[in-house]
Amino acid sequence: MRKSQAVGERADTVVAPLHGGAGGESELADKAGKSQMLEDASGNNVSLMRTMLRAMLHETSTQLMDEQKKMLERLWDALMGNQRMTTQMMGEQLEMVRQLQQEVQAVKTQAVEELRKVDELRRLHEQSTRQLRVMREQMSEQIRTMREQTTEQLKIIREQTARNFEQMRLQVMKEAREEMQQAKEEISQMKEQLNTIAGSISSGAQISLQPSYADVARTPPTSQPSNVRTLSSMRTTPSSFTDTLFCTIDILRVSEEDRGKAQVGEVRQAIEEKVRAREGGQPNWRCAAVVKDVRNEDRIKVVCRDEAELQLVREAAERMMVKGVRVLRDQLYPVKVDGANRTAVLDSSGNILPGAAEALGKGNEVMIAKMH
Fold first, then answer.
1. Using one digit for the tens of pLDDT, what is the confidence trace for 225-253?
2. What span, in angstroms and rounded, lies between the C-alpha atoms of 307 and 103?
3. Where does the record place a coiled coil (predicted)?
4. pLDDT of residue 355
5. What whole-number distance in Å separates Cα of residue 285 and Cα of residue 309?
6. Which residues neighbour 24 within 8 Å (Cβ) at sequence distance 6 or greater?
7. CA 56-51-49 angle, 5° bins
8. Helices then strands (H, E): number in the chain?
9. How far lies 24's CA from each of 19, 21, 31, 38, 217, in Å?
10. Nearest CA to 82 among 74, 70, 97?
C-alpha cells in the first residue's frame, strides 16, 4: 500500500507540469509511455503485494485470534479463579462478620452485666461507707468510754497498789522482826552449842594424846584425826567440829537452770518447810546451821543437834523437788579391834551377839555399821 501511494504521488508530480506548457508534447508523450509502463509494473507489484499482504494479514489475524483466544481463556480462567477466591473470601468475611456480630453481642451482654455489677458495687460502696461512718462514730464513743474507764481503773489500781505496798511493807517489817527474833534464838542456840562444845573440849583434855586405830582409819589422808588434840599453847582452842552430826547434800548433778533452787538459803528453807509440815512436828523448828563444804563447793552440810534430828533432816532433804539433788550416805571406814574377848562378841555358834557392835563402838568411840 505504501508503494502504490508512492507511485500515485509520482504520477501526480509528473502529470502536474504537463498542464503548464505545450512546448514539449513529445517529451511528455515519452514520459507518459514510461509512466504507463511503470504503472503497469506497479499494478502488478501492487497486486502481488496485496496478495502477500492479505496472506500475511490472514496469518497474522489467525495468530492474533489464537493468541487472543488463549489470552481470553487464561483471562477467563483467572477471572473464574478470582471469582472463586472472591466467593471464598466473601464467605470467610461473612463468617468473620457473623463471629464479630456474636462477639459484639457477647461484649454487649458482658457490658450490661458489668454495668449491673458496677451499679451493685456502687450501692455496696455507699452502704459500706454509711456503715463505716456509723462504726467510726461507735468506735469513737467506745474509745472515749474506754478512756474514761481506764482512767478510773488506773486510779483504783494506783490506790490498790499503794495499799498493797503499805501492806507488803508492814508484812516485810513483820517478817524481818520475826527473822531477827529467830536469828537471836539461833544465836542463843549456837552459844549454847559452843558452850557445850567448849565443855566437851575441856572434859576431853584428859583423853590420851595417842589416837586409836579407828580414829586414824576414818580420818582422810590430808587431814588430822578428829580426836588428836594440839595443846602446844594455852591460847589454842581445840576444835570438835568433826564430832558434830551433819547431813551432806550433793548438788553436782543439778542443772544450770535449777542451780538457783539448790543454794544454801533455798536448801535450808526447803528442809525447814518439810520438817514443819510433818504431823506432830514443831511449827517453829529451824536448822541449827547450813554451810557449804569448804573442800567441795558442790556439797552442802546441814548441822544437826542429835541423831533423831539427823534422820529427820535426811528424810526432808530426800523429798526435795529439785532434780539432781542427792543426800549422801555416811562414809564407812574399816576398823580393826585388837584384844577383844571372843565370848563377848560371838556365841558358841559363831554368830555375833546382840549389843556387841554398840559395845565395841562405844569402847573405840566409833559407830559400827557392820562386823566381819
1. 444 333 333 333 334 444 568 889 999 89
2. 107
3. 90-138, 166-200
4. 76
5. 11
6. none
7. 90
8. 7, 4
9. 11, 7, 11, 21, 199
10. 74
CA proximity to 249, closest of 316, 302, 304, 285: 302
CA-CA distance, 287 to 306, in Å (whole number)? 12
Residue 248 DSSP class: E
If you search the block for the grid coordinates 478512756, which residue do you land on?
A: 147
Confidence of residue 322 (pLDDT cuts 50, 70, 90): confident
Q: At CB < 8 A and 24+ separation, what contacts does 7-12 make?
A: 7/38, 7/39, 7/42, 7/46, 10/38, 11/35, 11/39
Radius of gyration over alpha carbons of the chain, in Å? 73
Distance CA 186, CA 194 (A): 12
The CA-to-CA distance between both ends of the chain, in Å, stands at: 174
**Residue 257 pLDDT more than 70?**
yes
Sheet bearing 245-250, strands edge to edge: 289-292, 299-304, 245-250, 326-327
Backbone angles phi, psi at 155, to 5 degrees: -65, -45
Q: Are 213 and 271 in contact (CB under 8 A)?
A: no
Question: Largest Cα–Cα distance in the chain?
Answer: 220
Q: What pTM does this model have?
A: 0.34
Which grid coordinates belong to 35?
509512466
Euclidean distance between CA atoms 10 and 8, whole angstroms: 5
- DSSP strands (E only) in the chain: 245-250, 289-292, 299-304, 326-327
Give dist(CA 188, CA 194) in Å, integer.
10
Report the DSSP beta bridge partners of residue 246: 303
Query: Which amino acid is present at 236?
Result: T
Give the amino acid at 42.
S
308, 239, 297, 241: which is closest to 264 by C-alpha?
297
Using pLDDT thresholds of 50, 70 and 90, give the confidence band for residue 197: low
The DSSP output letter for 232 is S
Q: What is the total residue count of the chain?
A: 372
